[in-house]
Amino acid sequence: MMQKVSRGEFSQKENSPLLGGYWTTGDKSSSTHDLVERMQYLYVRVVKAKDLPSMDITGSCDPYVEVKLGNYKGTTRHFEKKTNPEYNQVFAFSKDRIQATTVEVVVKDKDLIKDDFVGKVTFDLNDVPKRVPPDSPLAPQWYRLENQKGEKVKGEIMLAVWIGTQADEAFTEAWHSDAANIPGDGVGKIRPKVYLSPKLWYLRVNVIEAQDLQPKDKGRFPELFVRATPHVKNVNPLWNEDVMFVVAEPFEEHLVLTVEDRVEANKEEVLGKAMIHLQSVDKRMDNKPKKETKFSSRIHLRICLEGGYHVLDESTHYSSDFRPSARQLWKPSIGVLELGIFTDAYCVAKYGQKWVRTSTILSSFSPKWNEQYHWEVYDPSTVITIGVFDNSQLQGGDDNKEAAKDLKIGKVRIRLSTLEANRVHKHSYQLLILQPTGLKKMGELQLVVRFAYSSLVNLMYIYSQPLLPKMHYLHPLSVTQLDTLRHQATHIVSTRLGRAEPPLRKEVVEYMLDVDSHMWSMRKSKANFFRIMGVLGGLIAVARWFNQVCHWKNPLTTVLIHILFFILVMYPELILPTIFLYLSMVGIYYFRFKPRHPPQMDVRLSHAESVHPDELDEEFDSFPVSRPPEIVRSRYDRLRSISGKIQTRVHALLSWRDPRATSLFLTFCLIASVFLYVTPFTVVVSFLGLYSLRHPRFRSKLPSPLLSFFRRLPARTDSML
């Protein structure tokens, strides 16, 4: 049963990890891993061996190298019948787990029954040199092999042994001691990796007309349509309608267009086919029309690759990139985002086209990655997403696809505009996940983030520019088109990354891209409704305060408002300066309450703490729905009961649906126009202000005549079934 968690456990905490770098006055350390704690490793690079003795009766040697440090042992591949093998392999041993004082490099001869000892080299750990980038790599040296008694024997081996950190260039390619029990093909699945999303473009196809079609049945009028592979079917060929696809570089696919005749209900006849290689399609950077293309006088097309759009594979609310597809339209970067990751199973971070995956720490509930990554930043209004997952790819995932899914542990989003520039933000974020049983805390993720800009002028200039590329405004796409194209884009991205080695799993990519963010749920609707109410809360608070002023709840305040009102009436040119001065003072007042750290997932804002179990069941239900009809009917009834009833009466003032009310309103407008023409404006405003601020003894508890008149107007609800 899920354990109840107090609200305090969901709060963000500032941490103080031991960072690898340091800050000096006005500058920072030049270390490449200055945001994370330095973790020391013993590195052993086995380059090659030479002049190895013959060990078999055939006079051959099948050598391999074994690196031993205490209970840890790593081996190279072996070569058959070769006395001068080349290995070029690196071994890394975490210094925190070292329980020995020496490291042995042993050369052995592989045999069917028992491997033969050839020779070894031993190093005392106290004599091993230390290396910290940007120092140059340690040059490997030749070492003479020794036997078990320490005597020199035939054969030499080239080695480099040093103590370094995770910033070392050899870290990512090295065999690690924590992977000693992982099969060779599984080691790559727990190592850190950087992925790049495919570069996506919109493909616009406009079918203008079809000519010289020859249907088999001449006696009937053909029912024609054009089919474009792979996603869209357009049922009118003459027709000048744009069809949009998402395609990815290097444009190896073909666009196949077929003109078909629907002979019967479920039978189509192909009248012609056109195959277009995407590499031959022109690229358009603006909204200028492209030239038309004809294929054997049969189908007339207008086709182009749209480089002026940004292909949305994420929700626009928390997108990590807004650049157009065409690189020629990219603006220079405005800064650099650096991320240091400290804790939990394995992490995936996405920003722009670059994805990073951290190492998988095996059999640990409190792991430390201490890995650092950086991205170029082109827009401060973007969001970096960090997800945490449990690696299930090491447990026979190929045989059981369901069991092979990497389990979601939680996700963190950080908007760059909420980060103070050139400051190191060190915080511990709660990993929260909403499950069918309710909200659950899965752990904590310690992050160190720094956003550094290159030019303050360029950064501030970005705030005056449109969020999306200009083609989204000059030639906008419909909401339905964007939804369909985003589905195509996420499918292409997940497929491409799933073919990488090691693969980034489909469930991981879809969780990071929030593929199901468009799905409706009662919980999300409530959350968005209260967000709107929160925005209107300021206006509501001002209205309540003004009502108290009008009812003389605080006589001193009301008198001061009277004085301010008459000043503004006598000097109307002060109205706008006063408003902006007031807003400035409010902003200065709230400066002391400004957030000191980036926001994290808000359980109260998300309405995730007190969500009804049936609403959770509805949110996690599949689409189309899989629940019994009676449950679906109860959900529909609940939705009907919650739906608001909005009655609009404003249009009834002039619609003459109530002729007497419209006559009264028109008469009032004519009289008011004459009165306002002959009466000075200051007198009118003074009268209205004094009337609104009159003392409660001059007020009536009954509605005013104007409000009563408005409430009596007919609403369109009378005509609704």
UniProtKB/TrEMBL annotation:
Membrane keyword on record: yes
Predominant place of localization: membrane
Assigned keywords, A-Z: Membrane, Repeat, Transmembrane, Transmembrane helix
Pfam families the UniProt entry points to: C2, PRT_C
Compartments in which it is found: Membrane
Record has Transmembrane as a keyword: yes
C2 domain boundaries: 24-143, 153-294, 308-429
Bilayer topology: Multi-pass membrane protein
Transmembrane segments: 529-547, 559-591, 664-691
Any single GO CC term annotated in Swiss-Prot or TrEMBL for this entry: membrane
Family stated for the protein in its record: Belongs to the MCTP family.
PANTHER family in alphabetical order: FT-INTERACTING PROTEIN 3-RELATED, PHOSPHORIBOSYLANTHRANILATE TRANSFERASE ISOFORM 1
Name used for this protein in its record: C2 domain-containing protein
Organism: Spirodela intermedia
